[in-house]
Amino acid sequence: MVATTPVVVKKTKSSVSLPIKIENIMKEGLKKYSKITEAAKKRGLNESDTSNIINDMLGEVFGFDKFFDVTTEYKIRGQYADYGVKIDDKLIFLIEIKAICVPLNENHIFQAASYASTEGVEWVVLTNLEEWRIYHLSFGSRIDQELVVQFNLIEEGKSVKIFDKASCLHKEGIKKGLLKKLWTNKVALSEGNLKKVLFGKPIVNAIRRELSKITGVKIGENDVTELLTKLFENKNTCSK
Hints:
alpha/beta, tt1808, chain A, 7-stranded mixed beta sheet
């Protein structure tokens, strides 16, 4: 199962942040590689050349040591993921790479997710250099992939907002728990949790009171819960 609604990343005073020196290096790197990505797309680079640029980005932008942290063609039980990225010798995430002119789709994540599940790795990055998608994997009777963050290096590369999204993939950001924080926020704001709050008596009764004030009509609990149910059903129908 793949969820395709990423977390809206907003930087607040309480947010975990990177040291200012690293932040500045990363922002400049994102601008630089935004231009490189535009040029690469115009030339229609193949997957191998796209991969080479991503390898450089892992070092220059995301702070990984290309010799000790990054393994190309990461071997997993006789099969290979494009990249395996480690911190302190622990595998943190896999990267599945497509050529820059190949649009990303959900099918591309399945193979990488299968590799990751074999290693017990919770994170997979899917990218064609221009677009970056970061997925969290949950393992149970099946593998569930949740899209947590995505950004476009050409469209957003010169915007400050891209840093707030991409910083979770920086080596220091991962060490500070940015990826984990994004995931816990996504879980906290899940539809299931929202339903628990909205359908709970305190909220239902508050809605009844406000509707009664506005309309002068006495509203029952069932009327409110039925209305909320219809709103969720309509939302799910429209999103398909």
